[in-house]
Design goal:
Layout lengths: L7 H8 L4 E4 L4 E3 L1 H12 L4 H7 L4 H4 L1 H18 L22 H33 L1
Antiparallel strand pairs: 1-2
Length: about 140
Amino acid sequence: MSKKTFTDKEVKQLSSNPYVKNVSPKGITYTEDFKRIVIAEKEKGKFARHIFEECGFDTEVIGMTRIRAASKRWQAAYKKNGVTGLGDTRSGHSGRPRETELSLEEKNTRLQAQLHLLKAENELLKKIRFAERGLKK
């Protein structure tokens, strides 16, 4: 994350851009369409700064470090996962487990899976012990 924070005026200016999904004093969330545009234009040989300027961003407000970092991050995600890699990975993943009640069938299925895992683990430990005994002799 960049050390530069945005003023209220800059936040208002950035939020008026159609390619901005969300903006706060600490960061910007761009739309997936904009990320695709950046990837496509970069493949044509354009610089990230020019792409941002053509899409109506003030590069002085955003900062070149933030522009370069975003461009590199999106290119790496695109190379790794294609267009799906450009999606916002934070949505739906607050880090907290859901507190929904599981049905009896779901609880039973989870417990059975846990039981199979523990059995496999025990078998592996047994094999390791037998192998160690063989080495000691």
